[in-house]
């Protein structure tokens, strides 16, 4: 994995150089992913903007999270556009782990797959905010420079949107899954960051630490559900208005010539 080492974020990476099913590759410096950007240092901002060419941030956090956390260092950079696209119902609480949201998703888990809570969360994003997932992919495709997708931990909401983007680009499924699972290498650091924030501190330990860790099988099951229920990610996207022209634009953005 092409980790981006930052002083005050721990789960950032560049999704370039990933082989596709047809023998191509994703292009570095086009799609980045990260955890919360709230505490970036001046050196971190310079790394992202000046070195990596960041022009667009896709923020998947809820409105509650944005208000609670307040302005982040990158919001002061005029050259960087911020697009807020929550993928959960705004009424459920501040974070994915908030009490009401957790209770609701646990009920849904019984109906979908009681053995995998994270899978239930992910299917919920598709059901609850399909328009924002579609818009996130369109935003990535239209970014003039590098687009960065993030949420709080950079693993669940970010993991779903990034997996959809990489799948549209034709990245090999095993590598889509491997990218998702790579966040597990830094899960301890991620949870420590979240515990240090008043926004997340009370919620983060509602789940045992191992339930936060992304497992490859969860993403495999998620993609398999898309296959079974919609003919794949492209089928789901087509059902929600992301057509052939959108696919072509996103592929042109992410793939090497």
**Please, what is the CATH homologous superfamily?**
Protein tyrosine phosphatase superfamily
Q: Structural class from helices and strands? A: alpha/beta
Sum up the overall morphology in one term. Answer: globular
Radius of gyration: 17 Å
How does CATH name the architecture?
Answer: Alpha-Beta Complex
**Can you count the helices?**
13
Determine the mean pLDDT. Answer: 91
The portion of residues assigned to helices is 40-55%
What is the straight-line distance between the termini? 22 Å
Order of helices and strands: EEEHEHEHHHEHHHHHHHH
Features:
257 residues, alpha/beta, Protein-Tyrosine Phosphatase, Chain A, six-stranded mixed beta sheet, 6 strands, 50% helix
Description:
By secondary structure, the protein is α/β, with parallel strands linked by helices. The protein has one domain: Protein-Tyrosine Phosphatase, Chain A (Alpha-Beta Complex). It is 50% helix and 9% strand. It has 13 helices and six strands. It has helices at residues 42-51, 63-69, 99-112, 117-128, 130-142, 157-168, 173-182, 187-195, 201-204, 209-212, 216-230, 233-239, 244-254; strands at residues 2-3, 13-14, 31-34, 54-59, 81-84, 146-150. A six-stranded mixed beta sheet has the order 1-2-3-6-4-5. Helix 3 crosses helix 4, helix 4 packs across helix 11 (216-230) and helix 6 (157-168) packs antiparallel against helix 7 (173-182). The longest helix has 15 residues, at 216-230. The chain starts with a strand and ends with a helix.
